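Lab notes, practical 5.
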Amino acid sequence: MTYRLVRQLQQKAYSVAYLCRLLSVSRSGFYEAQKRAEAPAQKSCPVLVQLKASFSASGGCYGSRRLRKVLQAQGIEVGLYKIRGLMRSNGLRS
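Output from the prediction step:
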C-alpha cells in the first residue's frame, strides 16, 4: 500500500527519495516491489504446458528426472530444480 502511494505521488513530480524518507520506507524496497509487480506470473511459463502433457502421457508415473529427459528429447532445455518447482506448485506427484 505504501509503495503504491509512492508511485502515485512520484508521477506528480515528487522525488522517490523524498517520498520514501517521508513515509519511512527504503528506496530499494520500492524499486524491488515495482520489479515484482512487473514480473510475469509463473503460471504462464511456456514449459509448464509441455511438462503437464509429458506427465499425463506417462500416466502420472514420471518424476522430475525422467520428465527432464523427455523435455530434452523434445528440444526444451530446462533445469531439474525448475521442473521440481513447477511440479510442486502444480500438484504433480509421481
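Observations recorded by the TA: The chain has a mean pLDDT of 86. The two ends are 41 Å apart (CA to CA).
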